[in-house]
Structures are given as C-alpha cells and as structure tokens.
Amino acid sequence: MRVPGVSTPGLRTSALVETTDIYPTLVDVCRPQFRKTQWPLDGQSLRPLLTGQQEKIRAAAISYWGNAVSVRTDTHRLIVGRTKKRGESAALYDLRRNQDAIKNIASSHPELVQQMRRYLPQ
Question: Do residues 68 and 88 lie in contact, with contact meaning Cβ atoms separated by under 8 Å?
Fold first, then answer.
C-alpha cells in the first residue's frame, strides 16, 4: 500500500494485517471531515506501518474461507473448520519450516492449538 505524503518509499513489511484494517487506514490518512462512525471499527490503522514507526500492529490476523477460520501469527497458522457431518477440525502448521501449509502438527502440539484458539472470535 502506498499513500503519497504518508508512506515511506521503498518500505517493505511482513506485518500481519487484516482486510478490516483498510477502512480505518483510509480514515486516518485521508482525514475526512467525519471522524466518527456509528459503531467502533474492528480494524486498526496501518499508518504506523506505512511510515515505518512500527514493525507490527497485531499479534495475529484472522481470515475466513468457507466454513473455516484461520489464525495466522508470525510463526504458525491454525485453521479451524466446522461441518455438520464431521464437527470441528483443527489443523496447525509451522510456517518457520515451510511457508506452505503441508504438515499438520495439531495432534502433536495441543497446547499451541489452545493458545492460538484464544485469537478466534467468539
């Protein structure tokens, strides 16, 4: 994302962000006359990342795909799926070893699965 007069040219980041961060970022950098919304925004402004003031703004990012929700941290991805037939399933991947989700390590790391589940929306 590049914002003239705000973002640092050539700056790259591997910070975790969500699509819900786009609107708060636009409100922050565009400075429209309205500053309040009827309800609080879920996202966070990415301005500190764009200016290089911060290297990260969140510890985990949430995404959705079909009947599954994914929690991504700097080191791992947890995917929790729910179906009527099979109920709930969890898959955990160590992204330090491979950026592609190949080997499910959820059964051998139940404590990490529980830790990452804390990021899931209720």
Answer: no
Distance CA 121, CA 15 (A): 20
Q: Which of 81, 76, 82, 63 is nearest to 111 (CA)?
A: 76
Q: What pTM does this model have?
A: 0.82
So what's the pLDDT on residue 82? Answer: 84
Distance CA(60)–CA(20), nearest Å, equals 13
Q: Give the count of domains, the chain.
A: 2
122 lies in some domain: no
Task: List the domain range (segments joined by +) for residue 97.
Answer: 61-117
Q: Classify residue 20: in a domain, yes or no.
A: yes
